[in-house]
Prior knowledge:
- With about 300 residues, this protein is α/β, with parallel strands linked by helices.
- Helix content is about 35%, strand content about 15%.
- It has helices at about 15-25, 50-60, 90-100, 115-120, 125-130, 145-160, 180-195, 210-215, 220-225, 255-260, 280-285, 290-310, and strands at about 40-45, 65-70, 75, 90, 105-110, 135-140, 165-170, 195-200, 215-220, 230-235, 265-270.
- The protein has a 5-stranded parallel beta sheet.
- α1 (about 15-25) crosses α6 (about 145-160) and α6 crosses α12.
- The longest helix is centred in the last third of the chain and has 20 residues, at about 290-310.
- The structure holds N-(3-carboxypropanoyl)-L-norvaline.
Amino acid sequence: MQQFTKLSDVPNPQQLLKDAIDFKQDPRSQEQLGKGKTLVMLFFNPSLRTRLSTQRAALNLGMSVISMNATQGWNLEFEDNVVMNSDKAEHIREAAAVISQYADVIGIRTFASLSDREKDYRDFVLNTFIQYASVPVISLESAIRHPLQSLTDWLTIETTKKVARPKVVLTWAPHPKSLPQAVGNSFAEWMHFADVDLTIAHPPGYALAPEFMADANVSTDQKAAFENADYIYAKNWSAYGAYGQILPVQENWTITADKMALTNDAHFMHCLPVRRNVVVADAVIDGERSLVIEQAGNRLFAAQAVLGRLLG
Ligand code: SN0
């Protein structure tokens, strides 16, 4: 594997899932693999799980880790042919090449702008960085995808499912802020590949980008979508069509115990961080079908599997 930014970067996703399952059973099984190697992580946006789990994953493989908030460094210019006489002190051409001198693997987090859809959907910041980096790059969530989260979600479903092909519902949920589509996009991308029956439920106007909706059952009726569901995966995203906007929504899309009662005793999943009693009611996230803490724990094994393949 040369890089990890999307499903199609992975030559054998089933093998990667198996690696993650193996690491979940024995996290210390490959303590020598990363000896003498360094992971550098660069954060253009906040992180809790991704930062700590990826660092811990690297340590479990014997790597050294350096992480940096990009805001602590120089303000970077990403455009070409610019006269750099304003607030940007360093060009990405030098920055990415220089970081590559210090790293064997680089992780980058860069959220969507939510203002320029064309640029976001080219994954401009991530791909420009990769263009000038000379070592493998892992996406720690980019403008349009969060593949470490999606591999984690697949691992979580595979290790808890009671039927061969569970019904999985990705449901939009309310949020006070305008959030990226990355987690929803990426979850859909990986679930299309996984052996699940995927439904995407969203209010009118909240369809994901067409390339991520392909093949899924789609419903704008949340309660109907919940029927017979084995997994409810909640996530807010801002509109793709009216790009980055929060649209008025008629019904209440918060995940409540009443709605969970419509399902086939479904597990509740969310990538976190989550706004309690906006996205999901306390009774659901604190209930016994909630997987959110195990799911976050699985971030470690997904990151270990990915780092392992990039090193191996
Ligand atoms: C990010 C997102 O892409 O939705 C990261 C999720 C892993 N979430 C947020 O930015 C939540 C921010 C908030 O204020 O609730």
